[in-house]
């Protein structure tokens, strides 16, 4: 390479005196690039010239200069690049793509410059302005030959903004003030335009040297800003090249997480991000088969966006629609992660867009249809969606979609106010067992999500006033139909003197020690445990004949599952502050569950398993009113009210009448249990199979409730001061 003659002397100088040499070199390389573009053959590709080599050496010089100087200090070569608006000139050449392929070279130069130079460049007006203009060129043409360079450039800009988020204000371009002077295409007759670069300013607006060094980000408090960085990335998400799409999605993920409120507002108000998210979600959902096996939907492998590697032939061999399902779940995962990472205000807007444009517009009609096949498929898909969503904002909007936003107590007259909520709860008691089971699974999944509105809407708002309790002094109370005192099965253990006040064991600390209780409080919880364990009569028990089915198994499970996610431990609302005169309505959800629980001896085994699964999940949740209503056998129920315990008592009463009508009841019960456990082969048909299976589920459920009550009591006691 030819060098200026004075540069030979530079080799003999000390290190500090190398600066004039480096400056001269960068001037020489830049001069070659700019002059070559004036006189080069328009049709000759840039790769046939030395332009790529000169641009690469310019980068090497700038990197070397920075490495030889103290951190943050700008050297003369960088000063030259900034002061002489080299990036503006390169942008003009790249925009014109003259010579052919020049845009690719310019994009690469910008990308490497921003990636390799450690000092902050974007605050400089002669950097962020041409960067902004180059951003606008990206994504203009789908499947362009420069797509790879475009996405690399956009992603490095995103990474730089992530490092210094306030700089994003440079990239929120005011629509009303934009007065771009468009660069003419460089032709043989207009090559002088190269030396008058496109700066977006009139001659009187050219910045001073001081302004060229650095500037402050503008204040963007209005909604008239273009966010071209987002728009270009959105365009590239439509690329046919999957790798480009993933990179563009990664860039968007970085941008939505920036903490600048102005950027968050611009993102949701002035870009098509929400539309892209929802349109693609809708199109992927609508590409799914109308009918799919719920088991396939439930068991398809978990999907992470961006790792969507697949084999079409293998997927089709597993089940029809697997590829479409994975594509849908993958994009759902991206939406969920994007909303989780987003600035809070942007997250809310995006989540609401998903609710309105996808859940309400597309899913609701599917869930409200009358076709059993359609209901089953859409409910299974909804269950999978609930399982997958983790972002707070999207979860809340999904819950509002499913359950509504009402917080006041339900009445029998208001349960139809939210048609979808009403329909879903009714589906828990559908004529089709498959639909009932799938909908119950949906609610089981839902009540385990970390959103308080779920439990409040389904259960707690009905229990808030504790008006399921009798509002009379003990001596005035009428004996209830389901009172256990007269039942010989329970003996004297449930006499009024031994009853435990509902508010005692429910508190977050052990109750004060009345006469009938040991100082550690354990006597009373043992009474509660024994109440559940003694509910099923001995002749209807079969678990003690089979190893591994004892109460201790449920204790271990309860210890693992009892959760204290929400700050709901503590005392129930004091009765004196409750409106006990208010008519009690258990709520639509509990009504359906209790109704199904009441038919446990007459409905299929799989239905029973799912009903009890939902009730046990509710019982595990740490709210004192739930503890009282679902787990306290001793609450004094108001006339006409029922609790979980009272429902089970009625079932046991019915069972006692039916046991004596079935010959060899206990041996048959044991055989059915062993068959269910796989310990006995299927043989001859056993009469009353549904009843026998129901008895087994009932026994196991009572043991599970006893274990939950025990563990919750001690968890509350151990966490108290």
From TrEMBL:
<dbReference type="Pfam" id="PF10257">
    <property type="entry name" value="RAI16-like"/>
</dbReference>
<feature type="compositionally biased region" description="Low complexity">
    <location>
        <begin position="207"/>
        <end position="224"/>
    </location>
</feature>
<dbReference type="InterPro" id="IPR045668">
    <property type="entry name" value="FHIP_KELAA_motif"/>
</dbReference>
<feature type="region of interest" description="Disordered">
    <location>
        <begin position="192"/>
        <end position="224"/>
    </location>
</feature>
<feature type="region of interest" description="Disordered">
    <location>
        <begin position="467"/>
        <end position="521"/>
    </location>
</feature>
<dbReference type="Pfam" id="PF19314">
    <property type="entry name" value="DUF5917"/>
</dbReference>
<protein>
    <recommendedName>
        <fullName>FHF complex subunit HOOK-interacting protein C-terminal domain-containing protein</fullName>
    </recommendedName>
</protein>
<comment type="similarity">
    <text>Belongs to the FHIP family.</text>
</comment>
<dbReference type="Pfam" id="PF19311">
    <property type="entry name" value="KELAA"/>
</dbReference>
<dbReference type="InterPro" id="IPR045669">
    <property type="entry name" value="FHIP_C"/>
</dbReference>
<feature type="compositionally biased region" description="Basic and acidic residues">
    <location>
        <begin position="467"/>
        <end position="480"/>
    </location>
</feature>
<feature type="compositionally biased region" description="Low complexity">
    <location>
        <begin position="497"/>
        <end position="510"/>
    </location>
</feature>
<feature type="domain" description="FHF complex subunit HOOK-interacting protein C-terminal">
    <location>
        <begin position="586"/>
        <end position="678"/>
    </location>
</feature>
<dbReference type="InterPro" id="IPR019384">
    <property type="entry name" value="FHIP"/>
</dbReference>
<feature type="compositionally biased region" description="Acidic residues">
    <location>
        <begin position="481"/>
        <end position="490"/>
    </location>
</feature>
